[in-house]
Structures are given as C-alpha cells and as structure tokens.
C-alpha cells in the first residue's frame, strides 16, 4: 500500500485486501494463510502494526463484507444467540437479545475497554484475538458457546473450550478463520456474576472470574472461568453446595482448592503469581456469592 | 486605572483555537520536499558496538541517507553533547555522543539516523540496519550501582558515582550525639517520567542564501536550544531561529536540552539541503525521552521530648540514568528543600549521584521536590508515632511562623540563590487543611469503618515548592502604530495559558482591552535572551519582566503625553487605550498618537530609548516559595489492595493570583500527576536494563476515572520578591501527593509505607510481610 502523503501511522509494508464475501476471505486465507492477518475492528491489530510488533505480508479487511448483520441475532430455530464477524462491542453492549439470552455477557461488556474502543472493536475479533486477560473468551467458555470455523476446505464447529491453544493462539489452522460465535441460552433460573481486578478503569484484567450458579434440586452447582490468570480460559465446576455452604466457609475452601490445583498464574509487573492466586481466590468467592444472592435476571 | 484583569478568571484565549483543532503543533507544519528521519536505537543496555551494517537500508528506494557516528567525523557533532547544567561537584561527566560512537549506555540510545522520503520508508530502513553488540556488565539497581557491585555503566569508570555533594548548617554531629531522642529511617522512591500527550518533535530547514537555520521544536526552552545549537552548527545564535509552536505538554521532559535528535536533525537538514522532520513516537518516548530519578535515603533525626526538631542528617543516593547532561540538578533540588516547613537549626545532607544503564534523568514536574517532601513529611509522621505525639501537633510545634519570614534554611539552591523562604503562613494553612479534611473527627470515622471491616486512613503532608528561579526572564512590550500591544516573551507555553496570563498583566499596566494585546512566546526570532518554562517560574519571573516592561512603556507614554498635553506626567494615567488626566478623562491623547512622537522624539528628552517599547530582563533577587498542605482519606480494599480516595483537600498558597481559573487548572493538573506518581506510574527495568513497560498499556498513566474530586482552599501570601507578588503554581499540585497518599495508606493498613509509588501488588506483599 503506498504511503499517504501525510503519514501519521507507520506499520510495516503489507498488501491490503478488502473482500466482499466470506467466500473470498476463505480464498485469500487459502492463498496467504500464515502470512495474512484479518482486520475487523482494528483495536488490537492496528496498534500492533504501528508498533511493528508484527509484520504480516497481507492484511485482509473484513470491513467490506457485504450483508453482514451489525447486531447479535437470536435464532429461534437453533435456539442460539448468534454473532456475525462485524458485530461491534457496542452492539453487544446495547443488545436486548444479549440481555435476555446471555445476561452474563451484558455484564461483561461493561468491563470491556472504553467507549471509543467498544465502538470499533468487534466481538468475534476479541474471541479470535485470544487475549488471556480479556473477559470475552472466558464468558464464551463458561457459557459453553461455540465458534464456527471455516476455510476454503469447508466449515466446522468447535466448542469454545477447544478453541484456545495459548495466549493469543488458537487451535485452528492458518487458513481457517472464525466467522460466527454462538451462545446457547441459559436457563431462566441461572444466575451470574463477573468480578475483575484492573489497575485502571477498563484496563485488561490483572485477574478476573465469571461465575454461573445453577439450582439442581436442593443444591447449587457453580461453574467458574478465570481470565488474566493462566494461558487460556477454562471452565471449572465446583462440587455441589447448599446455599449455606456458599455464604459460609465451605465456598472459600473449595475455591482455594480449585485455585491451588488447577490454575497456573504467571508473574508480570502488575502482579506476581502469588498475588494473582490470592486475587483469583478472593474474586471467585465474591463472584459466586454475588451470583448466588443476586436476583434472577429475567424473571 | 479603570481596568483590572489581574485577579479575574478570564477564559483562556488559547482554547478556542486549540479546541477547534486549529492549533499548530510541529507535526502540523508542512513544507514542500520535507525529508523524514527515523532512528536506530540501542537494543542493549550496555554494550560495545562492534559493527553497523547499513547496506540493506541504503538499498531501499526512497532512502536518502543513513548516518552513523563515522559520518559525523570532523564535525562538532563528533563530540559528546555538553553538560548544560555544570557543577563543580561533578567528578566524572559523561554525556552521549549524538550518535553512539563505540559504546552504548542505555536501551534507546540513538546509534544511526535514517533519512528518507517519508517516515514509512525511514522506519522500514531503520528496521534493517544491523548492529552487532558485544555486551558489557549492566548497572540497573541504584544501590548495587552506587556500591560498584553492578556495572560499571561506563567502561572507562571504576564505579558509578559521578558526583557527590554535601552541605551543612550548624553542628549536626554534636546535636545527634547528645539529643534526648535520635531516630533513623530509610526511604525509597522509584522512577517515573513525564508523559506529554505530544511527544518531542522537530522540523528544521536551512536557508543557504540567508545563512539562517529555522527549527520548529516542541520544546519548553527555545532560547536555550538556540544558544546550545550555535556552536554545533557553527552559526551565531541570531542566525538560528528556534520556534516552539503549540506544544502538547512538556512537564520538564521538554525543558531538557540538547537531546541528541535536537542536534542531529538541524545539522542533517543543512547537510542534506532539505527540510527535515522527526516526530517522536510513543515507543521512542519511553526509552528516548528523559525520566525522573530513583532515590534511596537514610535519615537520622534528633528531637527533644516534645518533638522539637533539633538536627537532621540526610544521606541519599540518586540514580541519574546513563548520563548527566543536567548535572546534579535533581538531587540538588531535593537538598534545597530538606527543611520543609520547619525550623531545623542543624541540618546536613550528602548525596552521591550515580550512573545506571537506563535512560537519562532530568527534572519532571517538581524535579527533586516530591522526594524532599517525602523524606521530611514521612519523617514527621514517624517521629510523632515514635514519640507518641499526635501527627498534627508535632507539625504545629515545628512550623516556621509567619513572623519568622523570610526564613533562611541555610541551604543552597543549585545555580541560584540561597534557599530562603520569602513568605508563607504555614500554621494557618495547616489548620485550614485539618478543618477541611475533618482531622478531629477522623478517629471515630475510622473506628466506625473498621467495625464494618473497612480499612480507611487519613494522610497529611505539608510542603514548600520553589518557583521563580532565575537567572532572569525577558519580555518585550511594544505599542504598535495601530494602538495594539505586542508582548514578546522568551518563555514557551506548553499548555498553561501564557497568552492569557501575559495579556492580563500587560493590559492592566497599559490600560488597554485584553483583545488589543498580542502575545508571542518561545520564538528566538523575536528575542534572544531568556530561558524558558519550567520550575513554576513563568508567571513569577516572566510575569515580573512583563509587568516591568509594560510599566516602562507606560512611563514613556506618560512622558510624551505630558509634553503634548502640557501637564505634569504625575497627573496622568493610562486607560481606555489613551493617556489621560486623572479626574479629567476628556483631557486625553490616544496611544496611537504617541507612537510617532515616541519614534521620532529625541531620546534625551526624558526617555531612555526611542519607541513606545521596552524590554525587561527581570531577575529575582531571592528565591520564591509557594507552600501548602494536603490531606487525604483513603480506603484500601482488604482483598485486592486497591486504592480508593474518599476525599482529598488541598490548601494552597501561590501568592497573588493572576487568574484563579488558570491556577486551579495548574493545581488540578499537578494533582493528577501526583496521583500517577503515587499509585500508577513507574518505569520497570529488569536486571538487564530492558524497560518492561514500554507502552501505555504497561505504564499506567491514570485515566480521568482514577483522578478523584478534590477540594482546593486558597491562601494568598504575596511574594515580596516578585514585582506583582506572584509565586509559582505549576508544580505544587503534584509535589506532595505521593507523600499524602503514603501517609494515608500507612494509617489505613497499620504498617510503615517508606517507598513510593505503591501498587496493589506492593501492598499485598507488605501486608504478607507484616502478617496482616
């Protein structure tokens, strides 16, 4: 791409593609694969290019895809909440379908970046970016969502849990891409909470946790997914507890055991592994208690 | 005089232009055929350069030149840049070559300059310049470096201490030996940096025919840059036009001179015969723009049984990074304020200034003052604790009283006058603060919170803040033929609102509407002698020179009008754009009619010089000190250790106020920097000298969401030093904030906070260590 006359950004050179259909994206990825990057909202890719942290030979801009929905869609026939590749965060944040079908995601959107970023960044893009500190992959995994993966060779569906290989790394092939994310509806009786610790408002989380609490007979089944701690989001279930266990010390013990056994927190300048472990415990307890005592969201 | 603009909250004249996006910053200035520079910077903290291969860069279409040290041979740029703040205590001056010669001393040091048709190409080419390094021992940790265990940072030195300075008042040792109580404390302050929204930027063009260099420079100190460049370019200062256009923040980062880029870009523009632009990007700013200190201190203090300070002995280490172009300015500024607001009859400091393989340091908003405040005020809290005296009461017992002013601390201020406090009402100011923050009721408030499992704490600090540093500042005031007034000031505006401030001062002196005053700042085409904007000095020193120049013009105008009106000059006043007889406004002569007589009049007729114009190089005869007290109530989350500021009060005295709205802006902006310096911003280097947080995701400049509401109480102790009673306001908002927050966190958590900045992580670790 030739430099504009008054260049104020300075990514390394790349060839720019602007396909009009998903099929054309498949073809381009089939041809350039590992040398290509997809551009959707550009809130992560463009700064990385400008800082020359990556230098893809090809940038494939999804912004020109024709006929893509701009909002999440409830598909009654499949009973799923469906997100196309150009649905921006702001559309998820304001979506009534999301509020009703996946209230946890609505809560999580409040924590995603600042309004300017939410107005450009895309939901599927954040799922595919695989930032381990992002709220959205954890929500996907916790809610048992799926992604649709496609390439010039065909289309397949992956559970969110199977999508992540490591920080910023997916299990899919270089010529594959995610064109849809689907979330199943929760039960109306499910309750949710999300807690995170950030250094500044709307930063990526130093540590965070999303929780669902489901009534199964007389007991409560709690599931957790952490972010900002560990390489990939995973869904953990605690053994069933009574509501007294949850308000009492039983929950603290169960969470401590889970964090000690299953999480592998890392060190960075904002938190040591020990501090992350401490935060993971305290935030998980907060989240579960808050979920368990919250109003059922849509009743 | 009928008009009075001084003292009014007049809207900033700059805002209309700036808010509409019509400001002109360096990068907004476009010239045909401009070339663009990018720099190859050291990736090693300390290494010998064993080879530089520029072949691939030169092969790229659009690359004009790739310069390394060897290309500068035989030019003035082949020598190290000079120390712009020399001091006899410096034993080992080390400054960078504009392009590294054979040894690099910090990550980010310029090694090669690529010039190309546009910045894209320059970046592409810089990325393929290959540098071979032979790594050398690295000094990063201040204490290790000072002891000579790490490094040396410069392979031609044995250790890393480059300067040592000591000064004393009274007999510290004798008092320490026999005092009733002697306490010792250790303190530490880590490294931060100014982060102006607009990075540094340069656009240089050389007019071969006219023999003139023109440099647009996003700097706080255009006159200093002009004079600093002259020997490097082989030109007279008057042949070098340094213009600082709109500047998007400086905070001291841009008061430094000369940066290597600042020498290279104009030199190369001349050599290449084309305009050359370089705009610093954020990544470069993190490693190439100057930072501010780490310091480590040991304090010994002698007190009597009532908590009266008898003697203070302060020894500290100062980390200045890889070089000392600003000499020992920062640790010396710390030293000059070690008396705080208190009478301390016996006082001694000694410091070692140390090189490390990190980016060079120079002042950033407050310079060494936040650290002086931290040392003195944390000490006051701890002496109170150790003697079982209330921490407000111990301060009351030691304040310098108003009747003790001016107060000579016995200490020196670097490159200037003695550290003598000119005026201040410390006790009254402190009582105002205590009342506003609710000090008396706080014990009950804290107990009530504790009963709910909440940890809250109250922090207190007092401070002094030097403003009005010399040597002088220059302003030229001229009544133009159309009766409008031109003000040319050597200082440079970086967002403060100087255009508004100078207009207010001069309009009052000359009796003209503010709209008739046009202000030019930071342009060496218009004035040659002067310094720039830093150290809270512009309103006090630049403002005094503006008042003095305008008053001289007024005197001249009256003298001429007196002849024309055949009245005594003493009966005249300036108002409504005219000189008129007091009490008989119809007997008047407009300023426009005085311009020609002033130009043609004989200079022996009572006027010292022709024209309705005067320049002033006003020089403060003594130091000017603002003062204040901050109080804060914080809550610390017992699980995440996050900080929540429940209320914050600033009692503030910056002397006479020219424009309350501008002062409030300065205080609140400084306050935000203080919050940053207390809990968010910190440069993290690893042991290899790599900066771990090289972007704004890792280096936590607080958002608006992190800055709490603050209540500001003003006091006004007019300065006897400045002409108009004004003191400095630019830095005072930031100086005491980390100390107040430290005091409050300590009160909330119950263990000592002796290092800043803190973070949830450091508080978690401290709590573990203290078994909480």
From TrEMBL, chain A:
<dbReference type="InterPro" id="IPR005107">
    <property type="entry name" value="CO_DH_flav_C"/>
</dbReference>
<keyword id="KW-0285">Flavoprotein</keyword>
<dbReference type="InterPro" id="IPR016167">
    <property type="entry name" value="FAD-bd_PCMH_sub1"/>
</dbReference>
<feature type="domain" description="FAD-binding PCMH-type">
    <location>
        <begin position="9"/>
        <end position="188"/>
    </location>
</feature>
<dbReference type="Pfam" id="PF03450">
    <property type="entry name" value="CO_deh_flav_C"/>
</dbReference>
<dbReference type="InterPro" id="IPR016166">
    <property type="entry name" value="FAD-bd_PCMH"/>
</dbReference>
<dbReference type="InterPro" id="IPR002346">
    <property type="entry name" value="Mopterin_DH_FAD-bd"/>
</dbReference>
<dbReference type="InterPro" id="IPR016169">
    <property type="entry name" value="FAD-bd_PCMH_sub2"/>
</dbReference>
<dbReference type="InterPro" id="IPR036318">
    <property type="entry name" value="FAD-bd_PCMH-like_sf"/>
</dbReference>
<protein>
    <submittedName>
        <fullName>Carbon monoxide dehydrogenase</fullName>
    </submittedName>
</protein>
<dbReference type="Pfam" id="PF00941">
    <property type="entry name" value="FAD_binding_5"/>
</dbReference>
<keyword id="KW-0274">FAD</keyword>
<keyword id="KW-0560">Oxidoreductase</keyword>
<dbReference type="InterPro" id="IPR036683">
    <property type="entry name" value="CO_DH_flav_C_dom_sf"/>
</dbReference>
<dbReference type="InterPro" id="IPR051312">
    <property type="entry name" value="Diverse_Substr_Oxidored"/>
</dbReference>
From TrEMBL, chain B:
<dbReference type="InterPro" id="IPR037165">
    <property type="entry name" value="AldOxase/xan_DH_Mopterin-bd_sf"/>
</dbReference>
<keyword id="KW-0560">Oxidoreductase</keyword>
<dbReference type="InterPro" id="IPR046867">
    <property type="entry name" value="AldOxase/xan_DH_MoCoBD2"/>
</dbReference>
<dbReference type="Pfam" id="PF02738">
    <property type="entry name" value="MoCoBD_1"/>
</dbReference>
<protein>
    <submittedName>
        <fullName>Dehydrogenase</fullName>
    </submittedName>
</protein>
<dbReference type="Pfam" id="PF01315">
    <property type="entry name" value="Ald_Xan_dh_C"/>
</dbReference>
<dbReference type="InterPro" id="IPR000674">
    <property type="entry name" value="Ald_Oxase/Xan_DH_a/b"/>
</dbReference>
<dbReference type="InterPro" id="IPR036856">
    <property type="entry name" value="Ald_Oxase/Xan_DH_a/b_sf"/>
</dbReference>
<dbReference type="Pfam" id="PF20256">
    <property type="entry name" value="MoCoBD_2"/>
</dbReference>
<feature type="domain" description="Aldehyde oxidase/xanthine dehydrogenase a/b hammerhead">
    <location>
        <begin position="20"/>
        <end position="137"/>
    </location>
</feature>
<dbReference type="InterPro" id="IPR016208">
    <property type="entry name" value="Ald_Oxase/xanthine_DH-like"/>
</dbReference>
<keyword id="KW-0500">Molybdenum</keyword>
<dbReference type="InterPro" id="IPR008274">
    <property type="entry name" value="AldOxase/xan_DH_MoCoBD1"/>
</dbReference>
């Amino acid at each position: 791409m030739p430099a504009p006359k008054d260049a104020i950004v300075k990514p390394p050179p790349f060839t720019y593609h602007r396909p009009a259909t998903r099929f054309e994206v498949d073809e381009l990825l089939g041809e350039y694969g590992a040398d290509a990057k997809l551009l959707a909202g550009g809130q992560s890719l463009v700064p990385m290019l400008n800082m020359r942290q990556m230098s893809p030979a090809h940038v494939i801009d999804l912004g020109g895809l024709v006929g893509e929905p701009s909002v999440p869609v409830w598909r009654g026939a499949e009973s799923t909440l469906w997100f196309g590749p150009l649905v921006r965060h702001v559309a998820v944040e304001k979506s009534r379908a999301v509020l009703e079908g996946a209230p946890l995601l609505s809560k999580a959107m409040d924590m995603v970046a600042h309004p300017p970023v939410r107005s450009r960044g895309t939901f599927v893009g954040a799922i595919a970016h695989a930032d381990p500190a992002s709220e959205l992959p954890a929500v996907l995994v916790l809610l048992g969502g799926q992604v649709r993966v496609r390439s010039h060779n065909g289309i397949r569906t992956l559970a969110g849990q199977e999508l992540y290989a490591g920080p910023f790394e997916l299990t899919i092939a270089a010529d594959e891409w995610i064109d849809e994310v689907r979330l199943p509806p929760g039960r109306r009786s499910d309750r949710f909470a999300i807690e995170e610790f950030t250094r500044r408002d709307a930063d990526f989380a130093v540590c965070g946790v999303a929780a669902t609490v489901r009534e199964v007979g007389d007991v409560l089944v709690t599931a957790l997914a952490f972010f900002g701690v560990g390489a990939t989001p995973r869904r953990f279930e605690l053994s069933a507890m009574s509501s007294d266990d949850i308000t009492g010390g039983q929950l603290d013990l169960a969470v401590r055991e889970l964090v000690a056994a299953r999480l592998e927190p890392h060190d960075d300048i904002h938190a040591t592994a020990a501090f992350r472990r401490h935060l993971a415990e305290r935030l998980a307890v907060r989240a579960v208690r808050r979920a368990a005592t919250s109003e059922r969201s849509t009743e | 005089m009928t008009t009075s603009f001084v003292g009014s909250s007049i809207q900033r004249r700059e805002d209309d232009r700036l808010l509409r996006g019509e400001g002109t910053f360096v990068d907004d200035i476009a010239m045909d055929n401009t070339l663009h520079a990018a720099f190859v910077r050291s990736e090693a903290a300390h290494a010998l350069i064993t080879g530089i291969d520029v072949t691939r860069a030169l092969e790229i279409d659009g690359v004009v030149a790739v310069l390394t040290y060897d290309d500068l041979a035989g030019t003035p740029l082949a020598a190290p840049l000079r120390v712009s703040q020399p001091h006899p205590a410096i034993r080992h001056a080390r400054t960078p070559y504009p392009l590294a010669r054979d040894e690099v001393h910090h990550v980010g040091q310029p090694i090669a300059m690529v010039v190309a048709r546009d910045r894209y190409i320059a970046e592409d080419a810089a990325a393929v310049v290959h540098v071979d390094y032979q790594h050398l021992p690295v000094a990063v940790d201040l204490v290790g470096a000072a002891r000579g265990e790490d490094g040396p940072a410069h392979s031609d030195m044995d250790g890393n201490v480059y300067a040592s300075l000591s000064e004393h008042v009274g007999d510290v040792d004798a008092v320490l030996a026999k005092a009733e109580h002697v306490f010792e404390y250790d303190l530490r302050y880590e490294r931060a940096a100014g982060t102006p929204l607009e990075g540094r930027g340069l656009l240089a063009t050389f007019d071969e025919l006219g023999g003139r260099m023109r440099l647009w420079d996003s700097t706080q100190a255009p006159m200093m840059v002009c004079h600093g460049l002259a020997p490097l370019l082989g030109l007279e200062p008057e042949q070098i036009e340094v213009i600082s256009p709109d500047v998007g923040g400086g905070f001291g980062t841009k008061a430094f001179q000369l940066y290597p880029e600042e020498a290279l870009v104009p030199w190369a523009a001349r050599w290449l015969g084309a305009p050359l632009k370089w705009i610093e990007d954020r990544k470069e700013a993190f490693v190439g723009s100057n930072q501010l200190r780490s310091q480590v201190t040991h304090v010994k203090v002698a007190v009597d049984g009532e908590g009266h300070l008898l003697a203070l002995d302060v020894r500290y280490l100062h980390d200045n990074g890889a070089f000392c172009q600003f000499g020992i300015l920062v640790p010396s500024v710390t030293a000059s304020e070690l008396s705080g607001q208190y009478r301390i009859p016996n006082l001694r400091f000694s410091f070692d200034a140390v090189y490390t393989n990190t980016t060079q340091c120079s002042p950033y908003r407050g310079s060494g003052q936040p650290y002086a405040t931290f040392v003195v005020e944390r000490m006051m809290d701890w002496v109170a604790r150790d003697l079982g005296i209330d921490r407000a009461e111990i301060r009351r017992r030691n304040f310098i009283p108003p009747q003790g002013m001016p107060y000579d601390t016995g200490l020196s201020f670097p490159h200037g006058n003695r550290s003598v406090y000119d005026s201040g009402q410390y006790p009254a100011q402190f009582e105002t603060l205590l009342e506003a923050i609710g000090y008396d009721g706080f014990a009950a408030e804290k107990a009530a919170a504790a009963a709910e499992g909440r940890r809250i704490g109250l922090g207190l600090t007092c401070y002094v803040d030097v403003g009005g540093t010399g040597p002088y500042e220059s302003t030229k005031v001229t009544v133009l033929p159309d009766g409008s007034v031109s003000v040319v000031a050597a200082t440079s505006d970086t967002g403060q609102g100087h255009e508004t401030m100078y207009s207010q001062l001069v309009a009052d002196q000359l009796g003209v509407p503010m709209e008739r005053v046009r202000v030019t700042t930071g342009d060496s085409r218009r004035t040659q002698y002067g310094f720039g904007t830093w150290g809270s000095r512009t309103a006090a020193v630049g403002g005094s020179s503006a008042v003095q120049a305008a008053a001289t013009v007024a005197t001249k105008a009256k003298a001429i009008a007196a002849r024309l009106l055949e009245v005594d000059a003493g009966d005249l006043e300036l108002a409504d754009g005219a000189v008129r007889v007091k009490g008989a406004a119809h007997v008047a002569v407009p300023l426009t009619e005085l311009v020609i007589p002033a130009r043609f009049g004989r200079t022996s007729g009572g006027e010292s010089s022709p024209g309705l114009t005067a320049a002033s190089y006003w020089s403060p005869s003594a130091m000017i000190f603002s003062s204040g007290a901050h109080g804060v109530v914080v809550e610390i989350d017992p699980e995440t250790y996050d900080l929540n500021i429940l209320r914050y009060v600033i009692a503030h005295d910056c002397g006479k106020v020219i424009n309350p709205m501008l002062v409030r802006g300065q205080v609140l902006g400084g306050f935000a920097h203080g919050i940053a310096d207390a809990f968010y911003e910190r440069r993290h280097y690893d042991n290899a000298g790599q900066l771990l947080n090289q972007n704004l995701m890792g280096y936590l400049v607080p958002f608006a969401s992190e800055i709490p509401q603050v209540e500001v109480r003003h006091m006004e102790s007019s300065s006897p030093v400045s002409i108009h009673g004004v003191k400095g306001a630019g830095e005072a908002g930031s100086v005491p904030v980390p100390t107040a927050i430290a005091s409050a966190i300590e009160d909330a958590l119950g263990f000592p906070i002796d290092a800043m900045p803190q973070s949830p992580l450091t508080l978690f670790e401290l709590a573990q260590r203290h078994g909480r």
